[in-house]
Amino acid sequence: MKDKTNLIENTNNDILHFMVYKKKYLFVGYYPNTHEQQMSSIGYEIRSLEKLKVIDLENPSNKWNYQFNGKTAMGLIKSFNPKDGDIVYCNHIKPIKDK
């Protein structure tokens, strides 16, 4: 970012994993900061994902939030539709509305 804008800030103790999707969207995966997570040799792309944030890199004010609760892994996401924020992975998942 030219203006050095903070795109994401970890305000809790979660472990974060970043992935850029189609060179346009930053995917930020949240994993609980447990001893098991810290010591695991399994890559974050295939670990059970708790939460996911997606940030549009061209317009960072566009953000989508998801709660997976361990039901999928970041590397298994098949596609992302920025028009409505839908992610396709085994089923259709809608983003959680910001409060």
Topology:
Blueprint lengths: L14 E7 L3 E7 L3 H5 L11 E6 L6 E5 L11 E3 L4 E4 L1 E3 L6
Antiparallel strand pairs: 1-2, 2-3, 3-4, 5-6, 6-7
Describe the protein's architecture and organization:
This protein has a 4-stranded antiparallel sheet with strand order 1-2-3-4, with no helix packed on it. Strands 5-6-7 form a 3-stranded antiparallel sheet, with no helix packed on it. The protein has 1 helix and 7 strands. The protein has 99 residues and is mainly beta. The protein is globular. A hairpin with a 3-residue loop joins strand 1 and strand 2.
Assembly state (oligomeric): single chain
- Average of pLDDT: 83
The residue ranges in which pLDDT falls below 50 over 5 or more consecutive positions are: none
Distance between the termini: 27 Å
Beta fraction of the residues? 35-45%
Order of helices and strands: EEHEEEEE
Supply the helix-strand structural class. mainly beta
Give a quick precis of the structure.
5% of the residues lie in helices and 35% in strands. The chain is mostly beta strands and 99 residues long. It is globular and about 35 Å long.
